[in-house]
Amino acid sequence: MPIYEYICDDCGERYERMVMSQKQAIACPKCESSKHAIQLSAFAAPANGNKSSHRSSSAPSSRGGCCGGGCGSN
Ligand SMILES: [Zn+2]
To answer: Which residues of the chain have pLDDT under 70?
Structure first.
């Protein structure tokens, strides 16, 4: 199952989603914008696009994201 990495156009948030269908609506978990750049989850992506200052927050991202079911309910 392909996992895509999304980079929010509005806030720069990066998030990954498993995409089952191209019709699946993807929105930024942070600002809920639907504008984003998509790339296949980067195993071999060149790391030369580090222009956005991504602060190294000390908080580990422990939230599991979308835990099946309640996702997409409005
Ligand atoms: Zn966003």
So the answer is: 1, 41-74
